[in-house]
Amino acid sequence: MEEDQKRFIERGSHKGKGLAVFTSGGDSQGMNAAVRAVVRMAIYLGCKVFFIKEGYQGMVDGGDNIEEANWSSVSSIIHKGGTVIGSARCMDFKERAGRLKAACNLVKRGITNLVVIGGDGSLTGANLFRQEWSSLLDELLQTSQINKTEREKYKQLNIVGMVGSIDNDFCGTDMTIGTDSALHRIMDAIDAIVSTAYSHQRTFIMEVMGRHCGYLALVTALTSEADYVFIPEMPPPRDWPTKLCNKLEQERTAGQRLNIIIVSEGAIDRDGKPITAEMVKQVVVDNLKQDTRITVLGHVQRGGAPSAFDRVLGCRMGAEAVMALMEATPETEACVVSLDGNQAVRLPLMECVEKTKAVAKAMADKEWELAVQLRGR
Ligand code: F6P
Questions:
Q1: pTM for the complete prediction?
Q2: How do residues 234-244 score in pLDDT, each as one tens digit?
Q3: Neighbouring C-beta atoms of residue 279, cutoff 10 Å
Q4: Ligand 1: centre distance to CA 122 (Å)
């Protein structure tokens, strides 16, 4: 094993292989660290490396959107939020015609290794692309868009995913790239809220992001001593207004000068209907007459510099993704690089995507215990 590793990381040992990296879906802090690591590890191993700008749209449109990268293209980006190569939610790639154009653009540049950094939708798209690759190339050959030599030379497409999302909503990884930074951003905001709430003896309702996932809300609640939290995976009991008001009153009676309630953006009740910050405020005002304010943090959570954790996470996952691509054989399944107990590991991409989709299904079926269980640790 040690011998293998020594041989594998030899500089220039994968000379001339075409590899491209792109970011897709919502951006997140730490994506740049991952892009940087991919580019530098791939260059170190001898690959010809490309950025695909603006996500799948750039792959479909080609032209200047696919640009060769060098060592210095990724200098001074590790500390930046967002993604310097752009991201988009792309409709064209959902159609075979779009994927056909994308395949042609890759073949013309000799790219047969792809690193996709995005959420479960982006990773599912990548897997489908890989499954179709052979038939796409056949069609390109039949329509004379590529020649026989290109058809043969680029017949194997390897794909590796990394999950970039502040939501921490992907099954199989302990943390997605961006979650830790988002939590830092939320903590700063909530500490500020707490000081003003204390002065005026107010109740604050804070809405945090997480469309279908309560991780940010849950961790925020734990680390800010919140009095109540609403998350999508575990809706509150039907009599939550009474329970909430009792809890708030109890805290005030015990001498607390403020109350904090965290509402996940995707919070729902037991019938699957949204519980909004505005609804919670109404309950508090109507029943307790407390001076109550709402703060919706919004995209502030996704912006700004990445934390040290996300920078390191991006670096480690990026390097591992390149190694996984270089080791891939025609039999190797597309994988996702995940964090498991502080180790970067490779897991079958579609297995993780399926598990993640099963959580959404359990929520849609109102099987709350199952949803929580499927989220995993
Ligand atoms: O998935 C990440 C996320 O930030 C969610 O928490 C949020 O619901 C969504 O993206 C917002 O998407 P958009 O930036 O397209 O409004």
A1: 0.94
A2: 999 999 999 99
A3: 16
A4: 14
